[in-house]
Design goal:
Layout lengths: L2 H11 L1 H15 L3 E2 L2 E2 L2 H13 L7 H24 L6 H26 L5 H23 L4 H11 L9 H6 L3 E7 L21 E7 L2 E4 L11 E7 H8 L9 H4 L3 E8 L9 H5 L8 E7 L2 E3 L12 E7 H11 E3 L8 H16 L2 E3 L2 E3 L2 H16 L11 H34 L2 H24 L4 H11 L3 H11 L9 H25 L1
Antiparallel strand pairs: 1-2, 3-6, 4-5, 4-6, 7-10, 7-11, 8-9, 8-10, 12-13
Helix pairs in contact: 1-2, 2-3, 2-15, 3-6, 3-15, 4-14, 4-15, 4-19, 5-16, 5-19, 6-16, 6-17, 6-18, 13-14, 14-19, 16-17, 17-18, 17-19
Length: 522
């Protein structure tokens, strides 16, 4: 037996090795770019699995279902807060739009299958479903409505307060390049005998600590400076140079500058914060001395702009002195500090309970209807994810663990589908030629084109967020990345969160619905 025969025989005997081989190849090829485009990990894993499947490898069924349940639970847990509570000003409009587009996403492939007389063809059509969505939204979409996407994003960013120092000079800069400096205050500076809140109105420059004679103490908004005080001032470097150095001289006082600072991820759960813009939050007393570094929504980073709305379930990465960060965290929600353990008891029990609920069958007009165990696991994830906004320590899943559950669960499922469908993929192409792939292109493209036109002309979404909304409805993170690259901006991500939460939920259910429609109608 030569080496190749031994490898093939081993993979057939131990199919779990074939699964990890598909993952290794997929995650190696997926991120690589060609002409600015990459396949993505999921598509690359599927293609690798289809190729490996030509070796005739049988994978036991329960493995696929197990990882798929893990993936669905993780998806539900991640989007639960936005699905139930994260409604911003655009939320209702985005919900209606998402439901219409998702209905079209169900109807289009069903009609294509009926017209062409096709059976189920997941492995063949999934490839264009992923790649095609990115191309249609990032390249064809802007041309359909005649917009210059980078220009539209720049204009929208300006509307949201970015790039205009006259609107809010501190927000954008304060989130990027923060420094602390020690300065000596004298009467000539004009900073004495006034509360520090009046010294730099509208700017995120803060007096943090003061040395007055032999006494050192922290400053708040009502603190009044005296002649001869040595003060620690924090703020964006550009503002410190322009507004502070021109008034008071900098001094070297390492002991005073040696103050404890921290950087924390905060899980937003406060009802009073939900829907507020960063500009509004910046005016709260508890936000004094706080600098925002990142906003994460539905596991996607969104841009920091003065008019960006903060929603329950968002994760804000903030920095500042320990005292200020603690005060801000108490106002926003709870600190999402790194932990090593996942509450597997709650995760496992949630999947079991959700699966049992999903397994319940209701007969309507002689037709059995149920969520299925997959829909039940998704529902359990949604509920537990939403409960986290009320009881943040219940069923805790750290961000990296949630990413692993989501990514590994989906890609193992995809790998098994590809390996199992590998021989059928080739035989399917031999029987129907390229028609199955072409019909998959039609079923993918039509809903996306209609979504772009509907969103622009009927729902009047700004072009800067329109394509993010469309990518969210189709749950194509790869498409969002390509859209942001074409736009040269992260602004499209502002429209991604709510549609993504709805799309992830309903598209999973629609996958089961269309199978029932095709099987029941045959």
């Amino acid at each position: 037996m030569n080496l190749w025969q031994w490898i093939v025989t081993t993979l057939r005997s131990y199919p779990e090795l074939a699964i990890f081989l598909a993952l290794a190849i997929g995650f190696w090829i997926g991120p690589k770019k060609l002409a600015g485009f990459s396949l993505g990990n999921v598509t690359a894993t599927l293609l690798a699995a289809v190729a490996i499947g030509q070796l005739g490898i049988a994978v036991p069924g329960p493995i696929r279902s197990t990882f798929f349940l893990l993936f669905l639970f993780a998806v539900g847990y991640g989007v639960g807060p936005q699905f139930f509570r994260g409604l911003g000003k655009e939320g209702p409009k985005q919900i209606v739009f998402s439901l219409l587009v998702l209905a079209l996403c169900l109807l289009a492939p069903y009609l294509c299958a009926k017209i062409a007389g096709l059976d189920l063809g997941y492995a063949v059509t999934y490839i264009f479903g992923t790649i095609g969505s990115a191309i249609v939204l990032a390249q064809l979409g802007p041309k359909l409505i005649g917009v210059d996407l980078p220009k539209a994003c720049a204009e929208y960013e300006k509307q949201m307060g970015g790039g205009d120092a006259g609107l809010d000079p501190g927000v954008m800069s304060a989130c990027r390049n923060i420094e602390v400096r020690a300065c000596r205050v004298d009467v000539a500076s004009g900073l004495t005998r006034r509360p520090v809140r009046e010294l730099s109105p509208g700017l995120r420059i803060f007096v943090e600590r003061i040395r007055r004679g032999d006494r050192t103490f922290g400053a708040d908004a009502d603190t009044v400076l005296d002649h001869g005080d040595i003060v620690v001032i924090s703020g964006p470097r550009a503002l410190l140079v322009e507004k502070v150095e021109a008034v008071v001289p900098e001094v070297d006082d390492r002991a005073l500058l040696d103050m404890p600072v921290t950087r924390v991820d905060v899980f937003v759960r406060s009802k009073s914060v939900n829907g507020k813009t960063l500009r509004e939050l910046a005016d709260l007393p508890e936000m004094r001395g706080i600098y925002l570094r990142r906003i994460t929504r539905s596991m996607v980073e969104i841009p920091i702009l003065p008019e960006t709305e903060i929603l329950r379930g968002d994760i804000l990465t903030i920095a500042g002195s320990v005292q200020h960060v603690d005060a801000a965290t108490a106002t926003l929600g709870v600190a999402d500090r790194p932990v090593e353990s996942t509450d597997l008891a709650v995760v496992s029990a949630g999947i079991v309970i959700g699966g049992l609920i999903g397994a319940l069958t209701y007969v309507a007009g002689g037709v059995p209807v149920s969520l299925s165990t997959s829909g039940g696991a998704l529902l359990a994830g949604l509920v537990l994810g939403d409960l986290r906004t009320v009881h943040p320590t219940f069923g805790n899943i750290p961000g990296p663990a949630l990413w692993l559950m989501n990514t590994l669960g989906l890609n193992v499922f995809i790998a098994i589908v590809g390996i199992s469908a590998g021989p059928g993929f080739v035989s399917g192409l031999q029987q129907v030629g390229l028609s199955l792939f072409l019909w998959g292109m039609v079923a993918t493209t039509i809903p996306l084109v209609v979504a772009v036109l509907l969103g622009h002309y009927v729902f009047k979404f700004h072009p800067a967020i329109l394509f993010g909304v469309c990518a969210g409805v189709r749950t194509t993170t790869a498409a969002l990345g390509m859209i942001q690259e074409a736009a040269k901006s992260k602004v499209p991500a502002l429209g991604y969160g709510m549609p993504y939460a709805i799309g992830n939920t309903l598209l999973t259910i629609f996958g089961m619905v269309i199978v029932l429609m095709l099987v029941g109608g045959s």
